[in-house]
């Protein structure tokens, strides 16, 4: 499983966002390599594209949210649709993007209203994740960073386990219970689960789009003990971001 992580909410510069949004593996001059994962596919399909990113330690993986309302939740391989902290009680650094409701269409070139969530890869160990909306996990909306291409723990094996899952849980949601605070799954809300998303540093915020040149960005830096200013090349911590209206 990935190393410990901490989460910050930051407003990124126009240059860094433009580079991350245009190409997988692209990065601004002198910065780390950034891999882009589209969250939600053409016509609202429940997929991550690509669903398996091969990244080096220090690389960033940026999730870009398309139309509808999705999330990115860290899990274990054996229980694909369950937050990792539900399985590992001492896992206080897991990532969770929160729900990201928006009307953005797949393939939109403009960064206006773009919702993103970024994690930093600290080693070569596989990182497993899924969407906790409705039954999206069971429908195949699962992904990984550095999943093996052969053997027992491949992306295909992970998806097969997800298809058989009895529940799809959001961080803070107990097995067999409604979503946190009794909300209907898919309704936008701040992460309040220990070790999940923005709650890891107590900001309680979820990233949303802002201006066309500088969409807000929520970033997970998987380096234990590093400060918020160390993440994403020293970008400042932003205040609470307002959710984008459905």
From TrEMBL:
<dbReference type="GO" id="GO:0009055">
    <property type="term" value="F:electron transfer activity"/>
</dbReference>
<feature type="domain" description="Blue (type 1) copper">
    <location>
        <begin position="37"/>
        <end position="146"/>
    </location>
</feature>
<feature type="compositionally biased region" description="Low complexity">
    <location>
        <begin position="171"/>
        <end position="192"/>
    </location>
</feature>
<dbReference type="Pfam" id="PF00127">
    <property type="entry name" value="Copper-bind"/>
</dbReference>
<dbReference type="InterPro" id="IPR008972">
    <property type="entry name" value="Cupredoxin"/>
</dbReference>
<dbReference type="GO" id="GO:0005507">
    <property type="term" value="F:copper ion binding"/>
</dbReference>
<dbReference type="InterPro" id="IPR052953">
    <property type="entry name" value="Ser-rich/MCO-related"/>
</dbReference>
<keyword id="KW-0186">Copper</keyword>
<feature type="region of interest" description="Disordered">
    <location>
        <begin position="171"/>
        <end position="226"/>
    </location>
</feature>
<feature type="compositionally biased region" description="Low complexity">
    <location>
        <begin position="200"/>
        <end position="214"/>
    </location>
</feature>
<keyword id="KW-0479">Metal-binding</keyword>
<protein>
    <submittedName>
        <fullName>Cupredoxin</fullName>
    </submittedName>
</protein>
<dbReference type="InterPro" id="IPR000923">
    <property type="entry name" value="BlueCu_1"/>
</dbReference>
């Amino acid at each position: 499983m990935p190393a410990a992580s901490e989460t910050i909410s930051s407003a990124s510069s126009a240059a860094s966002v433009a580079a991350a949004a245009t190409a997988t593996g692209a990065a601004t001059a002198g910065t780390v390599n950034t891999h882009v994962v589209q969250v939600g596919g053409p016509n609202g399909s429940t997929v991550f594209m690509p669903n398996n990113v091969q990244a080096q330690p220090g690389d960033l993986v940026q999730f870009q949210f398309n139309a509808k309302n999705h999330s990115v939740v860290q899990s274990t391989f054996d229980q694909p649709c369950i937050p990792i902290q539900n399985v590992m009680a001492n896992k206080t650094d897991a990532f969770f993007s929160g729900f990201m409701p928006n009307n953005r269409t797949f393939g939109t070139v403009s960064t206006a209203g773009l919702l993103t969530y970024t994690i930093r890869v600290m080693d070569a160990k596989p990182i497993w994740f899924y969407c906790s909306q409705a039954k999206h996990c069971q429908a195949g909306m699962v992904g990984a960073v550095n999943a093996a291409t052969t053997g027992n723990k491949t992306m295909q094996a992970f998806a097969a386990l997800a298809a058989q899952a009895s529940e799809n849980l959001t961080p803070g949601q107990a097995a067999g219970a409604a979503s946190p605070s009794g909300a209907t799954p898919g309704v936008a809300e701040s992460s309040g689960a220990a070790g999940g998303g923005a709650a890891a540093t107590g900001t309680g915020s979820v990233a949303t789009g802002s201006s066309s040149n500088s969409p807000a960005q929520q970033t997970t830096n998987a380096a234990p003990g590093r400060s918020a200013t160390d993440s994403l090349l020293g970008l400042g911590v932003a205040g609470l971001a307002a959710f984008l209206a459905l």
